[in-house]
Hints:
Largest sheet: 22 strands, antiparallel, barrel
Shape: globular
Distance between the termini: 55 Å
Amino acid sequence: MSHRPTITGLATLLVVILGASTLAAQQFNQQPAPEKKDFGSEITVTATGIESEVDDVPVATTVITRKQMDDAQSPTVTELLRRVPGLSVTQLGDTGSVTSVFTRGTNSNHTLVLFEGVRLNSPYFGGYDWSLPTTTAIERVEVARGPYSALWGSDAVGGVINIIPQRRSGGFGGRILAEGGQENWQRYEATAGFGSAHFDIQASGYRLSSDGSLENGDVTGQQGLLTTGFSWGGDSRIGFVYQDLQSDIGIPFVTPDSPTPNRRQETTQRLMAIPLRWTVAKWWKLEVVASRTEREIDFTDPDDPWGYVYSTTEADTDQARLANHHTFGRHTISWGGEWREDTVTDVNPFGTALDNVTESTVGAFAQDNWQVNRKFRLLFGVRWDDTDSWGSRTSGRLDFGWRLADTIELRGGYGQAYRAPALGELYGPFGGNPDLEPETSNSGELGVVYTPLGGHSRWQLNIFTTDIDNLIEYDFASMENRNIGEARINGAEFVWEQGAFEILRWYIQATYLYTDDGDGESLLRRPQYSLAWTLNGDIGEDWSGDTTIRWVSSRDDVDPLTYERVENDSYYTVNISVAWQPWSALAITGRVLNVFDESYQEVVGYPAPGRRFMAGLRWDF
């Protein structure tokens, strides 16, 4: 049971922020801004739809860089997302198991997932399985927190996560990596490419396998990724992206007392995209992306008590997006449209549940990023989406940034967002209801960013609130899905980024969440408190590494045996990785996960892995 923060308490906290901002403004207003920043200069396209530095967008955005991925040596994106403020990650046990991300306390299907701007969320039941994406040949991962339906459409209730692949430049180069560890852990990566002023191409391959810690807990994952393009005129480019992700996992049990030694799941995701970015004139940039994403999940269990159980689900998405960006004085105006067609087929022992069921969505959006003066900026936008099944929806947003001094910026905003009913919720044989309406939300936020002179540190505090209505839940009385749920979320995020000796950096993040499901209970699997401290970077010329300490408070969950609400215990983890580079191109790598062998469960009934050791070689050429 959570304790709801009072309006007086929130108001007091906001007054403290404003007071601190005003005092800082008076102290530093006459001092020059730093020439070089260690933090806030990362590039993001997700927050506004155009390339901008993080410091130049008045919204909460985190960018995970390639350097951070290399220091952590993590093969998966999810391990790095655990460090991001406002995010909670849950995994059903061992590596490769189904993994979910909750952004700012919203549901796992309330985060829009993109790959190079292409939608990855499944049209069958929404959401995305975060066990799939790898860090191989990825340039950065952008996490924009808050409501983004006014720019990106459905599912962007809690935020948007955009995975950006690498693009080769500067001639021929690549990487080869091999890593081994306990439980027959094997990881291999190979990347090679060529880049020049007018042409670039890069191909990469990835394979991971492990026996796991339980019987039938093995995992095999692999990825093939190709990016290529032709550039002209400085920053115009037409490209092609192909990604093939595959996963084959064993499912060791249904519930802890019911082992399933032959239950398997194979997942495939294929993405093809043609992105075009064209600088038509100094004041006009045009972007077009045409894409197709194919998904397939095959589930089998020959030993199920009900007989040979299987299911095959195919969920495909065709999409085209157009965006125009015009610069007129202090205004950067963006407008465009989007078309998407989702198709789902699902077959199981009872027959064909969905047979090539299709839904089309069209949308149009407009946005103005207005630098009112040197100290004040506004970002406001609106988007309209329409389908045949649930009608149309209009979403708006308004954000501001007010630079009280060269070192202090006050930020705030309000936004509307929605999640459209998935095809399985609309037309599935068990609970399908074609009269469902979108889930809707209203969110507000107020925060302050402090960057001390010198640029070697950055502090952020964000306070946010979200009300979600029309949540889709199964109604046992009518035996169908209905818009009967609601949720209320209040929270705060604190971030401290600090550089040391120009080679090391540490990141401290703390998140507080209050959630209410409308009946006075907290939302499941959302911790009220979470903390993370990361130290990474270089030590001398030959050593680099990463140390991350995380603590997650207790949270409510459901017992898989009794189906009663229970409290899942708090836990902490420590991960350490080190790389020694005795030669200019070759590094010897090593890492330890869960250093102190903490026993914990991110989801009740699914034990997380214990301490593990990995070592390998990495050759860059």
